[in-house]
């Protein structure tokens, strides 16, 4: 099971994030009182979804032998009527047919992070 450790710093909102192989920084942007020294929490969610989407699409195209040369996923978070929306735009490069592009669009919504975010999630928080 993947594990992530997040710990506060002396800076107002800055957080150190440690995974098995990578160290990252989270922070709020300047306009929200942070230093803008790292991704904001919602940006991490968008980045995870975008990375998973791109990896899933690329893996599927490789397995099918399709000429996909580049994938870009643009994501945005917005809140409308107290409901969060994640908007994703998929840019595919390569000599793909319309049918192949449509199939890759369908596959994009099947990445594991997309499935997690669209499922019923239970979060258990405890004191240690």
From TrEMBL:
<dbReference type="InterPro" id="IPR003718">
    <property type="entry name" value="OsmC/Ohr_fam"/>
</dbReference>
<protein>
    <submittedName>
        <fullName>Osmotically inducible protein OsmC</fullName>
    </submittedName>
</protein>
<dbReference type="InterPro" id="IPR015946">
    <property type="entry name" value="KH_dom-like_a/b"/>
</dbReference>
<dbReference type="InterPro" id="IPR036102">
    <property type="entry name" value="OsmC/Ohrsf"/>
</dbReference>
<dbReference type="Pfam" id="PF02566">
    <property type="entry name" value="OsmC"/>
</dbReference>
């Amino acid at each position: 099971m993947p594990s992530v450790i997040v710990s506060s710093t002396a800076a107002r909102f800055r957080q150190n994030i440690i995974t098995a192989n990578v160290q990252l920084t989270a922070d709020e942007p300047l306009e929200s009182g942070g230093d803008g020294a790292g991704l904001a929490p919602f940006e991490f969610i968008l980045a995870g979804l975008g990375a998973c989407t791109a990896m899933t699409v690329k893996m599927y195209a490789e397995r099918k032998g399709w000429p996909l040369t580049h994938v870009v996923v643009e994501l945005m978070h917005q809140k409308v009527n107290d409901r969060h929306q994640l908007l994703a735009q998929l840019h595919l490069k390569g000599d793909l047919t319309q049918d192949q592009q449509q199939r890759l669009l369908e596959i994009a919504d099947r990445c594991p992070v997309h499935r997690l975010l669209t499922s019923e999630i239970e979060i258990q928080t405890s004191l240690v």
